[in-house]
Amino acid sequence: MEITTPIQEKIEQLNEKFAAINQKTETHLEGLLWAKPITYWDYIQTDALLNLQIQRTTLPDEMVFIMYHQVNELLFKMILWEIEQLCHNEAPATPFFTERLMRISRYFDMLTTSFDIMGDGMEVEQYMKFRNTLTPASGFQSAQYRLIEFASTDLINLIDYRFRATIDRNTPYEHAFEHLYWQAAGKDHKTGEKSYLINAFEKKYKDEFLRWMEEYNTTNIWQKFKQLPAESQADPMLVKAMRHYDYTVNVTWVMGHLNAAKKYIESQDGPQEATGGSDWKKYMHPKYQRRIFFPELWSEEELRTWGENV
User: Fold this and answer.
1) Tens-digit pLDDT profile for residues 234-249
2) Does the predicted TM-score (pTM) go above 0.85?
């Protein structure tokens, strides 16, 4: 092979790259002699991915349920990947900020429209049978979704609506954690008693949640927006992207989830609980907890009727 100028330039670039980390270029080049060619299935780890679906029952539609939620978790991971790039950029330009927000929103748009898979893609009779084997697990226990919330807005906007007046930026994270809106799904605030749903969730993730609450206290999406120059905060495309993200996550996606759950949970007579035993309607419906990431970007009328006209 002829050592052309472009090839020589690439060799020099490799020398610079490996010299910067005290490595020998020839060693790495020799390693290429023994490296296997990459394949799609190795790169994507297809075999590992397709062996993560383990049913607890013999009902076929349980496989739909498992794969659907695994896809959700993969999309949550994609969202967190974009949020990290945005929130850890010291001075994001307005186009970058807008583009990253729209990426995140598109993932949530996918999540929202995907509820047809849950709503129409499983037989009610099958679901009502295999759901009993899931108790006390619940989709409530998605840790990644909580991380998305912590990284999106100021902590006060995630506090149970009944306790927001008593909590501010000086409140210890541990105390604020005990008054997050989703504690209402499994905690009696009069007695302080928590359900197994909450206790198991906290045992697994509480330490990580507290770290994220502190890390994103000043670097969440809203705080990054407020750190932009005034003209950027007034940029119509950026404001539209912020509002779209807020409404998509806290109203559209939530209502898609709620309506899919209602079809199955309310298919039987009498009062029904979610698999984790939570008060699922008051926990999920946006008009009760009024989860709003960026309240300053909405009018008083929009805030007053949040989640009511869906």
Assistant:
1) 999 999 999 999 999 9
2) yes
